[in-house]
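Ticket #4471: structure export looks truncated?
Reporter: QA, pipeline team
Priority: medium

Steps to reproduce: submit the single chain below to the structure queue and open the exported record.
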Amino acid sequence: MSGHKTRQDRVDVDPNTGTVTSRVPIVSSDQRKVGYVKKLKRDKGFGFLQEEGQPEPEYFFHYSLLKGGLDAFGELTEGDKVAFHAVASTKGARAVMVERL
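Actual output as written to the record:
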């Protein structure tokens, strides 16, 4: 079914203590978005993505939601092409499951 979306929470659990460390709302869809890295804040561990051909919105992402984590974040540069899934949050548009192409 094209355009069908479901919501679930990805739960990260600390393997040493068994406590939940974060809950990330994930919206999956039939299609990943493709765009590029618009801005990086290396010292803070996050950045913003822009979908190709779309002037808005900018999608916030944290390095923990990037395939490859902190190592991959260190290799990203502004302008790199990426694929991602978009989620809506109370703080605006966010990108999850981000992957450098």
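Status: closed, not a bug. The export was complete when the record was re-opened. Leaving a note from the reviewer for reference: The CA atoms of residues 57 and 101 lie 20 Å apart.
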